[in-house]
Structure formats: structure tokens, C-alpha cells
Amino acid sequence: MKAREIQIQNHMIKKKPYYLPVGDEVELFTAAYEAKIPVLLKGPTGTGKTRFVEYMAYMLGKQLKRKKGLPVITVACHEDLTTTDLVGKFLLKGEETVWMDGPLSTAVKKGGICYLDEIVEARKDTTVIIHPLADHRRILPVDKKGTVIEAHESFFLVISYNPGYQSIIKELKQSTKQRFIAINFDYPDKEKEAEIIAHESGVDKKTAADLARIGEKIRHIEGHALTEGASTRVLVYAGSLIKKGISARRACDVSITSLLTEEKEVRRAINEVISAVFPG
Amino acid sequence: MKAREIQIQNHMIKKKPYYLPVGDEVELFTAAYEAKIPVLLKGPTGTGKTRFVEYMAYMLGKQLKRKKGLPVITVACHEDLTTTDLVGKFLLKGEETVWMDGPLSTAVKKGGICYLDEIVEARKDTTVIIHPLADHRRILPVDKKGTVIEAHESFFLVISYNPGYQSIIKELKQSTKQRFIAINFDYPDKEKEAEIIAHESGVDKKTAADLARIGEKIRHIEGHALTEGASTRVLVYAGSLIKKGISARRACDVSITSLLTEEKEVRRAINEVISAVFPG
Amino acid sequence: MKAREIQIQNHMIKKKPYYLPVGDEVELFTAAYEAKIPVLLKGPTGTGKTRFVEYMAYMLGKQLKRKKGLPVITVACHEDLTTTDLVGKFLLKGEETVWMDGPLSTAVKKGGICYLDEIVEARKDTTVIIHPLADHRRILPVDKKGTVIEAHESFFLVISYNPGYQSIIKELKQSTKQRFIAINFDYPDKEKEAEIIAHESGVDKKTAADLARIGEKIRHIEGHALTEGASTRVLVYAGSLIKKGISARRACDVSITSLLTEEKEVRRAINEVISAVFPG
Amino acid sequence: MKAREIQIQNHMIKKKPYYLPVGDEVELFTAAYEAKIPVLLKGPTGTGKTRFVEYMAYMLGKQLKRKKGLPVITVACHEDLTTTDLVGKFLLKGEETVWMDGPLSTAVKKGGICYLDEIVEARKDTTVIIHPLADHRRILPVDKKGTVIEAHESFFLVISYNPGYQSIIKELKQSTKQRFIAINFDYPDKEKEAEIIAHESGVDKKTAADLARIGEKIRHIEGHALTEGASTRVLVYAGSLIKKGISARRACDVSITSLLTEEKEVRRAINEVISAVFPG
Amino acid sequence: MKAREIQIQNHMIKKKPYYLPVGDEVELFTAAYEAKIPVLLKGPTGTGKTRFVEYMAYMLGKQLKRKKGLPVITVACHEDLTTTDLVGKFLLKGEETVWMDGPLSTAVKKGGICYLDEIVEARKDTTVIIHPLADHRRILPVDKKGTVIEAHESFFLVISYNPGYQSIIKELKQSTKQRFIAINFDYPDKEKEAEIIAHESGVDKKTAADLARIGEKIRHIEGHALTEGASTRVLVYAGSLIKKGISARRACDVSITSLLTEEKEVRRAINEVISAVFPG
Amino acid sequence: MKAREIQIQNHMIKKKPYYLPVGDEVELFTAAYEAKIPVLLKGPTGTGKTRFVEYMAYMLGKQLKRKKGLPVITVACHEDLTTTDLVGKFLLKGEETVWMDGPLSTAVKKGGICYLDEIVEARKDTTVIIHPLADHRRILPVDKKGTVIEAHESFFLVISYNPGYQSIIKELKQSTKQRFIAINFDYPDKEKEAEIIAHESGVDKKTAADLARIGEKIRHIEGHALTEGASTRVLVYAGSLIKKGISARRACDVSITSLLTEEKEVRRAINEVISAVFPG
């Protein structure tokens, strides 16, 4: 039962994550971290936002010369996520009642990055609980305990947001947004993406470049018929299957075409892109 | 009370399930399993997706030379299924509180396939909980305990999805989809289907072929008026009733016609198909 | 507190229920029972579906030469019925926690028919819980306990469904339907219905025939203006009131006309039918 | 704590309620009671349905020569009323758990009338729980305890229903309706109503007749603009205020006009009716 | 813990509330109180309904020569208010379970006025729970305890209702309304209102008259563009600010204009009214 | 466990907050505080409403010569905030039950400002609970305990409201609004805003003036295409990033453009404003 506390050491990034910067995101994140301005990462799925946060935690941890590095606690937000899940609750332990901090209050107390992934998916109370943390006050009121926690020196708040998903119902309020600076994420350029694909899937450079070409071309279709383009991740998946002996066409089929859409017209367009690159 | 733990041995596939491959699904599944890329099975009801997963668990278990085989824990998802149901919860046991893992955390810890059938039916939190399991991290955060479980070497995530059912409300998000490769499932061809019907229901080859013919023809009607065609399963049911002495026409009536639709026009079309094959 | 278990002997059908077969429903049910194919009973209210199930339980019990007969556990499904209600839950008993099986798990364990009346009314999780019970697996996963129950040899699943009620929202999914065969229920013909009315209400044969005639005629109006016709049950009610000294016209008025509709036009049509049969 | 049981003697009708029959409702109710056919009372508010049930309980109690009479347990149904509220639940009493029957199970066990007023307002599970009680089975399954109660000899089920209120959403299902006979309730005729007003409010016969005249005339407006006419109750209220010294016009104003509608046109029509009768 | 009971002495009106009658409301309320007919107060916000109830409690308390006066328990109803909140519930106290009456059952038992302010805002079950209290029965069933409380001699039920707010969804049912008489509340005339403003805010008679003039004029705009006019309360607020040294124009601005509407056109109209009265 | 009480000293404003008055808001707030009239602060996000409340608490605390100052308890309201969260609840502590006051009841008892930020976001019960606190009664009924708290001499209620957000569903009721006076908040003029930016971010006066100019110009676009203009806060953020070495254009890009809108046309307009001011 003593395990009912978030083990902060579980959240240390022990080895340097593989991450290829695509612009000035490292400089912006560092400046914001130093100025204690919370960061909002904007961009489509599979462009490396999560890994970027892990990378920055690792790099800033080094820079800060903290013995144990800078932990990063990631919360994948969803419709039923409440303030209580983030801040903590009382649990019954035999005849005693035990308090258990949530991921957010743990980071606020012990320091480190708290990354709320797709916060707009969570229940509305969660977007409000971060307001006093995200402005000059840097405090977290813990209503259930009647206390207020002042944020640790190294506490840093990061949230993400996928503009492609947002509807009128699921939109961040201006009073939330205007507490953050926004760093945009987009797909890397062809050369960088090929480098990533080769590194992650183990395919040869030629195949990696071919897959990157497919990614780029599909993203041009996107504006017209796809809600979202092929992410770098699905290109890596295609590469991995090729590496395991599946033919390039079939690998692209199950990793890309089948996933992106159910519409026949669009599928045909995607297939044309693929067969132009892998004619065989 | 000691029984409050998922008995993993209950989930071993002890004898080889009867499964006739219809394409390269065995190779794709094997490659994905080896590359640790989660798999999404797409296709209509009654085309053997569940049995395919059991078959692969059996085959991979053999191949891995695991003494006890590879368990498969199936969860039929529904509207009220929450993260807690999958990941685990605390139970009160007299004066003690006991943790009980859910089906997902059991598979993550002990290894084996976790098959989330029709995951899109579940509450939204469940589709998000699998994100860190389904990418490079392969971890499962257990919020209630404040811990993070690293997936067992042999843990493998499979989900299914019936495109015929999906609406705008119940649709997998791109950020979920793009963590999987998709293997399509469809009805087997006439010869294979006849073989399955004969094997499963015990009818003679001629009757099995007749039933397979009916299946194929009804699926042609489908595009126009039926939401879904007659599955292999209902053809097997018709065969079983014939075997028990019910006339072929009546067996098809209660297994196929009455189930597929309430619309009179479509029923007439189905009946014509049946009486063409079983004129008596 | 020891009473917190479903008493299976409460569910034995001790004497032969009065039931007049209207077609081959007895043969179909018997064949399905033997082939272990679950049965879906389709038809309007008051046509004897519940009594048919009780009758079959009695008859199959005899045939099986089970000493104690075949129990039938009926569950009237409703909007708030959950999986937990069917499968069981933990109850607090003083300082102990006691497991209590639900009606479904009781039948799965101890054998007998489980009849889920109007299952489509229940919450969606309940229609999914029966999937592994209703296919080749014949198992019931008990999530709360982490166990899986293999169905008793004599366990048999029956559900009912009233097509007149179904809307797009409340519709069985194809993946549920295609696990059953469907036996249709309809109103008996005039002669059989008169026999039932006479037997159940105690009126003389002439009056019973008159009431059956009224039933038949009203069902012809139905297609146009009534959501559902007069069931055999309301005709029996009318007979019972006549037997108690209420005039035939007034008995039909309170048992039939007032119940079937609020629309004046339709009421006039019903009244004409009644006064043609009972002119006095 | 011993008081946690429904005190059946609280529900005896000790003195004969004042009730003036308006048709054959007494005979119909008696015949239905003897034939054990449940009764549905249909009609607008304030026409004496509740008092009629109390009157019949008193009269049948006498007739049955039961020493203690026939109790009547009334439940005013509402949106949040659940099966548990009707059937019973377990309560924690110190370290023990105590079962407490609900109003319905109390009447089923101990006998008497259970009157579910406006049952259509309750949650859907409650309309289903009465099905096995309202047909030939006369049983009440108590899911929470795993038992089935057979209804007491004198148990009788009465429900009410106001057709003016019903919408498509709040409508009794045919499978519920066809388990009842329906007795219609309407406003009494002018003479009877004057007699009631005089008796209940204590005003003189002339004033009572004037108020009854107003009631009758307003009900003629109703068809056009009012959802419901002035009930006998509001006419009694007007009489009571007159008796306390309020002028007849003002008494009608606050008891009738202000309550029935907010629409000016309709108010003017009502006022004209009132000032024609009470010109002063 | 002994404090878990409603302290009835907290609800005594110790000194005569300042209240200026505007019509025959005192006589009507008194007559209804004596005839035990529940009262519904209808009218816009800020017209003194709450204070009128306190005034009547004080006056009737005097008249009744009760030593301790007549208590008034006010409940501001809201969307989440349930029957349980009004009637009472069991609380856990260490190892014991303690019953705690709600505001309504306290008044029913101990006597006094129970004032349910804007009852239509509450959940539907609350409007039904008052039915047997509001007719000839004068009883309150306490389902949770299985008992029925007969109302104290001096118990009196008052509810309020703002017709300007009601929508089809939030409307009192006729079966509720017709259990009450309705007393209408409206803004006082200019002279009376000036007297109230002067008394409550302490401004001189001239300023009070000016403010009353503004109130009257704004209410003429109302019919066209405002959902509700300026209440007496906001005029008193303006007076209070003037008394504290804020200029009359600015005081009206923050008390009246800024509150009543966001629409520019209407604001201009209100400002014209104000600057006509306070030209400086 | 003893910590389960709100620590009022946590809510003292220990040092004078930096606040530049923009109009007569200090005088109005002071007059309202003295006249005990609750205050509603109206205006867009990031205009310093929260800091103004802290400033007034500090100033009034000085003025009152209270040794410990005037505490301010801020509650960021959200969709799931209930009365219980504000007023308090019982908690189980081992075998005892302990009452814990909420933020509102704490301020009511011990004195100080309770600031309910964006109250309209909270559940409806919370807007009703403040009614008796916000009128002449100045009381808070604590239903759960059956008591009524009279407000401390120095208790003062402040709420905020952003008119840009309100929809028909989320609107304060007139009966709530008319219990407050409204003080409007808007963006400060260019000179004041430059002063604030320089003070808060540490940039030089020239850059601060440039940023203030950008703010002003963007607010002119607002009326047409933006739901809300750039707040003072985002201008301060831009300043802070510039101070950390990010170029002025890039700083404005991530602090302003990326946050305010997703629409390309509007972004272009904003960019033109920025590049006119920072041409480099």
C-alpha cells in the first residue's frame, strides 16, 4: 500500500531521446522555461510532440546539472479526466485515510515538466485548475485538502493541442490560451524525415527516402480530402514492416492507405502516390 | 477472496483453433508482432476476427516455444467500459484494500495478446489509455496506483473495428489510428467458406456449398439494401439446423432472412436467393 | 444474509404451462437447444413469448429426464440494466465482502434457460457481455472477479425483441443479431385464440369466439393507425370482466379501446368493430 | 433504527373518504380487483383519482371483512424514481447491513393496493419491474436479494396516467399498457361538482353552484387554448377563500385565472366567464 | 456532531421586517394560511417576495401569539436540488448512522412556513414530493425511513415562480399548480418605491424620488428589449452608492445600465432615461 | 489529517501587488465594500481583474488596520463546481467524520474577500447559493449541517464575468445579476499598458511602447474577426521572450499570432500589424 504515491524516478528520462529539431523550437522552449512562461505545443498527430518534451526534459536536466535530471510526467487527457485525477484524492487504507497526489500536484511539488497531452479533451474543470498555475501566481489550490501548493522552482507546464480536431465544443477558452505561448509543430522536411525513418525502422537510406517522398505527397492530398496526413510514425511503421520482409507496396497499404480514410476516391489517390514510388 | 486476480491460465489457447487463412494475414500479423507494431483488424461481423486472434496466439505461442503458450485476453468493448475496467482498481476486502489488475494491465505485466474488440464502442478514456502502450514508449500508466508498468516482452495489442458501424460520433481519432497497422478482413471465397461450413456444422459438402452460394449472393444484395451481409457464422447456423432435421428452406429462414432485415422488399430478394438454391 | 444468492429452485416450472403451439416453434426451439444455437424471439407484446419459454423449459426438462427440470430465469430488461446486474457484484456483509451472482451468471453456472426479455432496452454493455456466450466460446467473463465461467451443459440463451418498438437508437447490432436464430411470433389464428380466451378467462365458447373475432378485426386496422394490435392478453382480460358481470361492450371498452390509442378516429373504428360483434 | 420499515398501519384508510361516484367506476374497479386485473386510471389532474383509490381501499376493506382494512400505499412517481426506491435496498446500520423493503415490495408481501401515481414520469426501469406483477405470474423479482416474492392474495396494482401530459418521450409502452384495463376519469357534471364544492369548502349551495358553473364554462374554453381546465380542486379553493371573507371575484382570480395560463387572450376569456357569474 | 439538525430558532424572524404592502397580498396570504391552502408567489426578481414571506411569518407569528413566533425556512431551489436535500438523509457518524431532517421535513414536523424559492429550477422529484403535502392529505412520505409525517398545525407551504423565466422545459405541471393559489407580485408604484429607496439606502427624499422615476421609465422600455426591468433592489443599490459619495450618474451606471443588458441600443435608451433625471 | 481546513493565512496578500488603476474602479470598489454591496467585475481575459481584487484586498486590509490584512480566497469556477465544493462537506477520518469548510464558507466565517472567477461556468446550484449572501440577509445556509452562517463583518463577495463568452445557456440570471453592481474592465490605454509591460517583463521602454502599440492595433481588428483581443498578459509574455534573446518578430509570433486565431486572413492582418512595428 505504500506504493500509492507517484514514483518520480519512474518519470526521469534516462537516456537521450532521438530527436531531430526542425526549427527554433529548442530555443523557444528554453527561453520560455527560463522566463517561466507555460508552453502550448500545436500540431497534428505523430509529429513528435511527446518526444520533443522528453528531449527537452533530458536536455534541460543536463543543463540544470540536477543530479537526477528533470522528470516529465505525461497525462493523456480524455473526456472523463477530472481535476481530482490531476490534483489528488483521499484513499481509504484499512481504517486510515491516505492522501494520494495526482500527476499535476506531484510535478508542482517536486519539480519537473507536467505535459498535459490534448488537454482540450479533458473535462472543463481541468482547464480551469491550471489557470493560477499558468499566470504570475504559480500556485495550485488543492480544494480537497484546503491547501495551496506553491510551484517548485523547476516546475514547468506544457500542454498540447491539435488544431485539426477542435470543434466549437472542444476549444480552449481565450482565458486559458492567453496564459501560454504557442510553438507550432509540423511534419519535418523530406530530408529530415528520411533520416528519422532510416534511424527508427532500420531500412536503408533509399527506401527511407522513398517513404519520405510518399509522406510528402500524401500531405498534398490532405488539404482536399484527408482530415490529417500520414504522420512520420506511420512511415516508420511501413519501414519496419519492409525490414521484416513484407513487400513495400503491401507495407504501405496496411500502414498508410487502410488507416487514413475509408473513402474510395481518396484511397485511389493514395495508392497512385505509392505505386508511383514503388512501381513494383 | 484470493480469486480476485485474473487467472492468466484461463486465457491460454489449449488446442489449435480451426482457422482457414484467406490471404497474407498470418504473415502480416507475424511481422507486426515481431516489430512490436500494434494491429487493428478491420471488417464486418462474423468473419472470424476473434478466432484469428486465438489462432495467432496459438501459432505464435508454439513458435516462441513458450512452455505455456501465448495467452489472449479478449475484452468486448461497450459504451460503459472505462479505463478503470481495463487497468484495475482497488477493492475493499474486509478491512484491507486489495488491488485488482484489469485485463489490459494483466496482459501488459504477464505478456500475451490483449484484444480489445470494437474499441470504438468504449468510453473515450479507453482509447487514450492505450496511446503510450501503442507507441515507442510501450508503457501503461496506472493512475490509481501512481505507477507506470513497462510492457512485457511478449505483450501485443490488437484492436478491432467494423467500418460499417462507424459514425462521426464513434470514430477512432487519427492520433489513435496512426499508432496501428490495419489488416482488412472480409468474407472468404465460396470454396473456402463451404469448407468452413462443412467443418463447423457437420453437413455434407453439397449442402455446405449450397449455403456458401447463398452467402455470396446475399452479399451482392448488401451494397444496396443491407447494412451488413450474411456472415459465415449464420451460414454455419443454418447448416447446424439442417443437420438437426430442420428443412433447408426453414433453416435459412430463421438463421438468415429473419435476422438480416425487417424490410419486406429486401426479404423477398433474400428469399429468392434461397429458393433458387433450395428449390424444394 | 445467507439469502443473498439466487434460489434456482424458485425458477423451476413446476406445472405444465398452458400453451398452444401456433407453428413449428417447438421443433425449431428444440433443434436450436440441441445445437446450442441461441434463440431470438421476435414479435409483438402479449403473444405468449414469455409463456412459450416457460413451456419449452418444462418440456425440455421432462425430455432431459433431469430430476429437477430445467429452470428458466427471466430478466425484464430496461434502460438502467447493466452488466453488473446480470453478472454479479460484491456486497458488503458486516465486515466481510460477499460475492453475489446475477441471474445470467447463475444460469451459466447451474444450467437452465436465461431469458433476456427485450434486451434492446438494456444498456449497451449488456448486449456485448453475451457475445462470448453466444458464439463457439460459450464463456462468460466475470470482470469484477477476474474469472471466466464456462457455460453449463444445459445453459441456453434466449432473448426477445419487438420489431415494432425499435428505432435507430435502440436497435440490436448485426454483431449481436448474427449470433442468434430468429423465431417469429404472431397472433394465433381465430380458432386457436378463441380456445385460449375460453381457457384463460372462463367465458363460454361463443363469447370467446366473439372476442377472438374482435381481435382479428382490430389487427386489420393496425397497419394503418395503431402501433400495435390488441394482444391475446387484452382479449382474455375482456373475457374475465364479462365473467365478473360487466357488460361485453363495457368490458371491451376498458380492456381494448381505452388502451390502444388516444386518437378519436381510430377509437371510432375500434368501437365499430366491437359494436358489430356485440350489437347489444 | 428499528423504524426502517414501512409501517403498513400508516397506510390504512381509517375513515370513509368523501367520494361521489360519477359513473360505473366502482363496479369496474371491483370486478378488476376480483379478477386480479391491474387497473390504470386515466384523466386530468384534480378529478379525484387519488381519493377514488382511497375510497375503494376503504370499501373493499369493509367488504373483505379484514379486521384492519385494505391498506393503500401511494407513490408519486418522478424522473428520478428507480426500481430500488420501489423494491427495496440494503442499508448500513452500524456494522450490520439491514434490508429495507420499498413501498411496492411491502404491498406485494403484506397485501393491499399499491398506487403508482403518474408512473410514466418514473425512470424506465420502474415500468418494467411491474410486468411480471401485472400478468399471470403475479411475482416480483427482488434482484438485490436474489429472491422472488409471490404476491399476497389481496395485493392489487393501480397506476395513473394523464393523457394531456404525455409526449412521445414519456409514453407508456404497449407491453406495459396491455397488462391493465383503463378506467377513464373526467370532471363531474355541474350538479355533482356543486355538491362536492359545498361539502369541501363550506360555502352555501348558491355559491357552490356558481363556482361549478364557472368550472364547466372554463372547460369549454380549454379545447382551444388551455392545456388543462379548472379542476374541482381549484373550485373548492375558491370556495374556501370566499368562506374566509375574500370577495368572489378576487377568490376566483387567485385560484383560477392566475394559475391556468399566462396568455392574456385566454385570461380575458376566463375573466369574462367569472364576471358573468359574479357580476359584482 | 450533535449539530446535525436544523436549528429551528435560527429561522425565527426576530424583528419586524421593513415591508410596504402594495395591494391585498396581506389579506390573501392570511386567508390562505387559515384555510391551509398553499400559496404560489408570482413575479419578477427584486420585488420583495422573500421579504414579504418573512414579514408574513412575523405578523402571523404575533397574531398566533406563539411564544417563539412562526419560523420561515427558505430554500433557494436549483438544478441539482433533490428530494433528499428537502426531506432528509442518513449520515454516517462514526459507527452509527444518524438521520438528519431536511428543511422541508423540519418545517412539516415543527411547524412554520417552508418557502421554496423558484421551485421550478429544482429537479422534478421535488415538485412531486410536495403533492401530498399540498392537498387534503397534508402528509410528507419519507421514503428513506419508510414513514409518513403528518404536517404540524402551523405548517404552511409557499413557493415562488418568475413567469419571465419559464420555458417549456422548466414549467410547473398543472397537477402541481392546481394545488396552490397564486398571488401576483409587481413593482410598487412610484411613491411607494421612493419611500422604500429612501428607507433602505438613506438617501434624501428628492434623490429617492428621482431613482423611483428612473425605475418606472426603464420598466417601460422593458416590454420591448429587456427580459426584466430594474428591480427595486438595484435602485436601492444606486442610492447606497450615492450616499457613499459616488456621483448619481456613475452610481446608476454601475447599478443599473451595466447589469440590465449588453445590447448597445438598449443601453443608450437607459442612459437617456438616467441623464434626463440626473442631467449633471 | 489535521490539515483538512482552509489555511486562511495562505490567502493573505503579503506584499502590495503591482496594479495601475485605469479609472475610478478603486473608488467604486471601496464604496461598494463599505455599503456591503457585492461586486461583479466585467471584462475580457488578461485585463487584470484577479490582480485588481488582490490589490484591493491589500489596500482595504491596510485601511482597515487589521493586523493580518484582508484575505482573498479565489475560486476558478468550472462546469463541475458544485455548492458542496464551495460550502463544505463531511470527510471520513478513520472512524470519525470531520467537517471541512469550503472556500466560500471559510470567507463567510472568518471574513475577507471571496472571489468567484467566471461564476457562470459553475453548475447552477452555485449561483443560487450566493443569493442569500448577496442581499440584505448576508447569510449562508449550510444544508449539509443544518446551520446558517451569518457573514463576518468584513466578508465581501466578488464575482467576475466575461461578456464575450456568454451564450444563452451560460448566462447569469437576472435574479443573480441584480444582487450586484457591475464594474467594467477594459484594456488600459497605450501609455499605461507600456508602463505595465516594461515593469512586468523587464524590457526597455521603447520595446514596451512598441508592444503596447501592437496590442492597441490588434484590438481594432478584433471587432471584426477576433473573439477577443491580445491581452496585456500576452504582450508581457512577448516582452519576456525578447528579454531572453528571442527576436521581437518571433516573440510576437508565438505569444500573439499563434494564440489568437487559426484563420489565415486574420493572421495575416495581425502579422502586418507586427511587422509594421518591428520591421526588422
TrEMBL record, chains A, B, C, D, E, F:
GO terms for molecular function: ATP binding; ATP hydrolysis activity. Signal peptide: none annotated. Pfam families: AAA_5, CbbQ_C. It comes from Desulfosudis oleivorans (strain DSM 6200 / JCM 39069 / Hxd3) (Desulfococcus oleovorans). Keywords: ATP-binding, Nucleotide-binding. PANTHER family: DENITRIFICATION REGULATORY PROTEIN NIRQ, MOXR FAMILY PROTEIN. Residues 38-180 form the ATPase dynein-related AAA domain. The keyword Nucleotide-binding applies. Belongs to the CbbQ/NirQ/NorQ/GpvN family. Residues 193-277 form the CbbQ/NirQ/NorQ C-terminal domain. This is ATPase associated with various cellular activities AAA_5. The keyword Glycoprotein does not apply.
